[in-house]
């Protein structure tokens, strides 16, 4: 079966399939190979920092980014952690708790980074 020019071009550039192997593929099989080549990305862990001085917050954000966290600016539907400083607003903390977001302080966040342990 003849593959579409687009598919044939992609398969030749992304795989090491021989001409014989390419000729034996169906269009569907070819696309399945292409989609299997896409890297599987794991969803990032989302964290928001609140109640910290700008300097503290920037330091925490840098650490989170270096450890592949996604930084949220507010309480979102995908938020996993809310890291709270001394001046964290009670309304934001309540909203996070209602969404079953895990609340952390800076020390617990550092421990999470170092050990992977989530506080109880």
Describe the structure.
The relative contact order is 0.13. The protein has two domains: 5-37, no CATH class; 45-115, Rossmann fold, CATH 3.40.50.10190. It contains six helices and four strands; from the N terminus they run αααβαββαβα. The radius of gyration is 23 Å and the shape is elongated. Helices cover 49% and strands 14% of the residues. Helix 1 (5-14) crosses helix 3. The chain is α/β, with parallel strands linked by helices and 120 residues long. It has a four-stranded parallel beta sheet, sandwiched between helices. It holds the Pfam family BRCT. This is BRCT domain-containing protein. Residues 44-113 form the BRCT domain.
Count of discrete domains: 2
Unreliable residue stretches: none
Number of strands: 4
Q: What characteristic shape results from the CA principal axes?
A: elongated
Mean pLDDT equals: 92
Largest sheet: 4 strands, parallel
Strand content: 5-15%
As laid out across the biggest beta sheet, the strand order is 2-1-3-4
Order of helices and strands: HHHEHEEHEH
What is the CATH top level name of the largest domain?
Alpha Beta
Protein name: BRCT domain-containing protein
InterPro entries: BRCT_dom, BRCT_dom_sf
């Amino acid at each position: 079966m003849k593959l579409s020019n687009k598919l044939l071009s992609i398969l030749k550039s992304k795989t090491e399939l021989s001409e014989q192997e390419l000729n034996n593929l169906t269009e569907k099989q070819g696309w399945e190979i292409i989609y299997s080549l896409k890297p599987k990305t794991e969803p990032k862990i989302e964290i928001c920092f609140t109640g910290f001085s700008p300097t503290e917050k920037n330091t925490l954000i840098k650490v989170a980014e270096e450890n592949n966290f996604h930084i949220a600016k507010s309480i979102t539907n995908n938020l996993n952690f809310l890291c709270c400083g001394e001046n964290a607003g009670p309304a934001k903390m309540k909203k996070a708790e209602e969404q079953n977001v895990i609340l952390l302080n800076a020390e617990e966040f550092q421990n999470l980074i170092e050990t992977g342990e989530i506080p109880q």
